[in-house]
Amino acid sequence: MTAADVIQAWDRAGPDAIHPLRRVSEDAYWESGQVQAEMLATVIPDGAKVMDFGCGDGRVAIPMAALGYEVTAVDSSQRMLDRLAERAPDVTAVHAAADGIAGHLGRRRMDAVYCLAVLIHHSWADCLHTVEKLRAATKLGGILVLDWPVSDQPAEADSWIGVTTWSREQQADACARIGLEPVDSGLPWSVYRAVKAGS
Ligand SMILES: C[S@@+](CC[C@H](N)C(=O)[O-])C[C@H]1O[C@@H](n2cnc3c(N)ncnc32)[C@H](O)[C@@H]1O
Questions:
Q1: Average model confidence (pLDDT) across the chain
Q2: pLDDT > 90? residue 78
Q3: CB of residue 56 inside a 6 A radius of ligand 1
Q4: What does DSSP say about strands 110-115 and 92-95: parallel, antiparallel, or unpaired?
Q5: Where are the domains of the chain?
Q6: Which of 1, 6, 10, 95 most suits a substitution to test ligand 1, by most atoms within 8 Å of the C-beta?
Q7: What pLDDT is attached to residue 1?
Q8: What is the spatial distance between Cα 52 and Cα 50, in angstroms, rounded to a whole number?
Q9: From atom 27 of ligand 1, which residue's Cα is the shortest distance away?
Q10: Which helix (H) or strand (E) holds 94?
Q11: What is the CATH class of 3-194?
Q12: The sheet that has 92-95: what strands, in order across it?
C-alpha cells in the first residue's frame, strides 16, 4: 500500500476503527487516552511544546492538553480533525501529512513529538520518510515517542489497518542515520532523544 492509499483509507474510516476500546465503550476509549497521556508525561517535560502526529480525533492529544502541554495535533484526515475540534476547539489542529509539517512550523521546533498507531500502518519506506520528518520537527535534545514495533520476523502491513514490523538492525541503522538516540523508558513505545544525524 502507498502512503496515499493508507491516508485515504483512514480519512474514510469510521470513528470505531481508531482503537478497539471504542467498540467496548466511549468511556473506555477516552480513558485509554488519559492513561497513555500520563505515560507520555513520564518522559516529556512539563509544559513542553508537543506534536501529536496522526492525532485522530484527539484520544491522546486532548488529555495531553489538559495536562498542560502546548499541543499541536496533526492529521492527514480533515474528518478526524473535525471530530477533534468538536470536542476540543482550543487544541491547535493542523491538516497535514509528514511533508506538510515543515511548512507549518517554519523555523520553530517541537520539544517533543509523539506518534501512536500511525507508523505501524505504513510501508518501511513511507514509515522511514515520516520518521525523518518527525525528527526534523524536533529540537536537538528533544524527545520522540514512536509506536514503531520490532519483530524477529519483520513484515510490511498488507492493508491500511495492518501492522508493519521492523528488525532491530533496520531500526538501529535508521536511528543512527536520522539522529535518534534510544532512551530507556519502560514505556510500550520506542522513545528517543533527538541527536545530530550520524552521531
Ligand atoms: C489508528 S489512528 C490513531 C489515532 C491516534 N494517534 C490515537 O492513538 O488515538 C491513525 C491516525 O493516523 C492518521 N494518519 C495515518 N497516516 C498518516 C500520515 N501519513 N500522516 C498523517 N496522519 C496519518 C489517520 O488519519 C488516523 O487519524
A1: 96
A2: yes
A3: yes
A4: unpaired
A5: 3-194
A6: 10
A7: 86
A8: 7
A9: 56
A10: strand 92-95
A11: alpha beta
A12: 92-95, 70-75, 49-53, 110-115, 138-146, 190-194, 180-182
